[in-house]
Every structure is written in C-alpha cells, then in structure tokens.
C-alpha cells in the first residue's frame, strides 16, 4: 500500500484508534499535545526541540548542538513507539535562520545513511523557547 493510502487510512482510523507515545528519555511536550501518536501502522512525532530531557534546558545555543540533541530525542520517541530512523518516511524541519541549512544537513544526514526520508525545510519567524531548530517526523511501524 502506498504512503498516501496509509496516511488516508491512518487519518480515518485516528478518531477511534490512536495511542499517545510517552517517554521520559525525551523532553516532555511543552503544551497540550503528545510527544507522538501511533495510529494504525504510522507514528506521528510532534516537533522536537534540542532540550536535555533531565533539565529541560537547551543542550547549547548553537544550531549544531540543538540539531544533534533533537535527533537523539527523536530517536528515543521513535523507539518508545516501536519505530526507528530506518522507518521514518517524512520529516519537516523548521529553522530560525535558513543560513543554518548546511550545518543542519551535516548532522541530520548521519541519522539517515541509507535512503533518506522525504523532507521539507522552512525558515520560520519564531520557535518555542527561542529555539534555533525544531524537527517533526512521520514513521511507519515495522
């Protein structure tokens, strides 16, 4: 079944079949939303920031440090959902400054050494807690 049909199926089932994914190995959600939702055979990971789970503070002020921490945090959320980086099919990256695109790619690429997922990247006016970067993803369950 193609990804489009899987998404349509997941959205159709979401009203009756969705499960929150929660792990203390990644930062808690900053508002009334889940770290991720499992629906059907898909995982929808909310936007992740470069916060250290134990402190709730940014790992660093620079985009490289925040990107690396985001990828670690996202990996823990995916693991808690029963997924992995290999099963990620789509990511969305939001940057405070698009000039950071190249630096982010260098770190991001280490987590997808094989076939990289589809991706969109946007420069945004602001991010929560004045973050430099936020990443969300969709993954399939293996």
TrEMBL record:
The gene is LOC112290151. This is Uncharacterized protein. Belongs to the RutC family. Pfam families: Ribonuc_L-PSP (PF01042). InterPro entries: RidA, RidA_CS, RutC-like_sf, YjgF/YER057c/UK114.
């Amino acid at each position: 079944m193609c990804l489009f049909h899987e998404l349509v199926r997941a959205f159709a089932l979401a009203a009756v079949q969705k499960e929150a994914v929660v792990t203390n190995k990644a930062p808690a959600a900053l508002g009334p939303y889940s770290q991720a939702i499992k629906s059907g055979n898909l995982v929808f990971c909310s936007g992740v920031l470069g916060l250290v789970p134990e402190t709730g503070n940014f790992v660093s002020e620079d985009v490289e440090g925040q990107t690396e921490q985001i990828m670690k945090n996202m990996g823990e959320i995916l693991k808690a959902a029963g997924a992995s980086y290999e099963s990620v099919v789509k990511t969305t990256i939001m940057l405070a400054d698009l000039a950071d695109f190249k630096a982010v790619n260098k770190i991001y690429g280490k987590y997808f050494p094989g076939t990289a997922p589809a991706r969109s990247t946007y420069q945004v006016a602001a991010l929560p807690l004045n973050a430099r970067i936020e990443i969300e993803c969709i993954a399939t369950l293996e």
